[in-house]
Amino acid sequence: MAEFLTDIKTIRERARQQIEKGPVTDAYGADLERVLGVLNEALATEIVCTLRYKRHYYTASGLYSEPVAAEFLEHAQEEQEHADKLAQRIVQLGGEPDFNPDTLTSRAHAEYDASTDLIEMIKEDLVAERVAVAAYTEIAKWLGDGDPTTRRVFEELLAQEEEHADDLRGLLERIPGGQRG
Fold this sequence. Notes:
By secondary structure, this protein is mainly alpha-helical. It has a single domain (28-174), classed as Up-down Bundle (Ferritin), CATH 1.20.1260. The protein has helices at residues 8-16, 32-59, 65-92, 104-107, 118-143, 148-174. α2 (32-59) packs antiparallel against α5 (118-143). Residues 29-179 form the Ferritin-like diiron domain. It comes from Streptomyces formicae. One of its GO terms (cellular component) is cytosol. Its cofactor is heme b. Fe cation binds at residues 46, 82, 129, 161, 164.
């Protein structure tokens, strides 16, 4: 039979204490308030990215716009799913997701973009994805074993952000003039 570091009787007793904290127990090893802050920054990032992709989807025009716009829409939907996952995790940890539109862009890692040139749209989206990849990599490392569930959420998002960056790089390679600048 496997041995626990803490005997099961003690674990059971602790589980009965502060039950209003839900999944956050004495075994939680991260700075909860800081984790909630980081989650809310990532939530703002994903909402801004959703809005940017939606803007680009609706305003993309030109010879190559149809497949690019379809990619923008797919990415917008996936960024919205990311925002939903982050909001759910914030609530799980006893926090409140911050959807305040007045402060979204100041809290987000990525920037909103209103480019009208198709290549510039792709480039700005690629920059935003690269920002997310860098930020989420750092966050996952920072969380380490202190909050493995939140770390896994960021690792899942990270994998999809890397896929988005690769998709956008591929679009730039296929569009004449996409490799300029």
